[in-house]
Amino acid sequence: MRARLLVFPIKGRNWCFSRSVDKTTIPTTSSSTAPLTLKDLWKKIISSTGSLQNNAEIVVDFASDKMNTAWENLEKAPEGTVKSRVHGVGLKLLSRVKPSEILFKSISKDVTRVDITYPASFHPRIVRRRLRLVALRGSIVHRRYFYASLTLLPFSCALSVLPLPNVPFFWVLFRVYSHWRALQGSERLLALVSDCSWSRSSLISEKTGINFGNTTTSQVPWDLQPSEELGKLLVGIKEDDGLSNCALSKICLQYHLDMTNVLKYKTSL
Fold first, then answer.
1. For residues 108 and 181, what is the distance between their CA atoms, to the nearest angstrom?
2. H or E element: which one contains 225?
3. Cβ(193)–Cβ(114) under 8 Å?
4. What is the pLDDT of residue 1?
5. Between vectors from CA 118 to CA 112 and to CA 120, what angle results, nearest 5°?
6. Could you read off the pLDDT of 91-122 as tens digits, one per residue?
7. What start and end residues bound the annotated signal peptide (predicted)?
């Protein structure tokens, strides 16, 4: 599967790295493939002949399905109830999630190639280098926070004795899941945009059997696509204020980006 990434400066040294949202090409994960109960989860792990990594994916899918179901129930709760207030707190916490984390989580194991769109005035080597550094930094940060969140999970679970909804437990559980997905995505993105032969050899598609071990130009797992149109939209960029919201809105509309996530890059440090 191909993923289209958009790379452009947004304010000062801040660059935006975002994936185009195309619902026709992004497969939807069916909740029916995930185990429904802990008993089903245990049976699936026992019957699985895969590696520890595959078993971890089964557990993550199970937890993700349960968290999505719980979140949907909170979203449907009547206004003024405790569940509605918990949902409001959750929205505020989610607004603090960094946009790079959302990018990494969108790079699933099914992605075997990335199309990188960038302003035509920029050197392609610099663009790919910046993307590679972002992926490398993400793999380090999310590995660290994954283990930290995993350590906090037992302590937050102890709060379940209180007569109130255990919001800290579910938030820490979500962060464990989110950092795990971001870690997997950042490592895969790093392998996709790297020159190392060892990283390409690891990119073997389970569906097509394509091996990227060959170092020929026609088989590199990235495609740099300079865009004159994107460069024109960046003409009015200012060093202090960055791109105007009007220009960002046009870019998001043209390339199918999430405006909320793109704006986070403008204010991030």
1. 8
2. strand 222-227
3. yes
4. 87
5. 135
6. 888 888 899 999 999 998 889 999 999 999 99
7. none
Bridge partners, residue 226, by sequence: 118
Here the contacts of 206-215 (C-beta below 8 Å, separation 24 or greater) are: 207/110, 208/112, 210/112, 212/112
Report the alpha-carbon distance of residue 38 to residue 44 in Å, rounded: 10
Contact 227, 120 (CB under 8 A): yes
Instruction: Name the residue ranges covered by the structural domains of the chain.
Output: 2-267
Q: Which run of H or E residues covers position 177?
A: helix 167-193
Q: How far from 72 is each of 77, 84, 87, 131, 172, CA to CA, in Å?
A: 9, 11, 9, 34, 18
**CB-based contacts of 94, cutoff 8 Å, min separation 6:** none
Q: Which two tokens stand for residue 61?
A: 């899918």
Using alpha carbons only, how large is the chain's radius of gyration in Å? 20
CB-side exposure of 87: number of CA atoms within 13 Å?
A: 17
Number of H helices, E strands in the chain: 10, 4
- In terms of C-beta distances under 8 Å and separation of at least 24 residues, what long-range contacts does 65-69 make, across chains too? 65/31, 65/34, 67/170, 67/173, 67/174, 67/177, 68/31, 69/31
Q: Give the burial class of 76: count Cβ atoms within 10 A of its Cβ; 0-12 exposed, 13-18 middle, 19 or more buried.
A: exposed
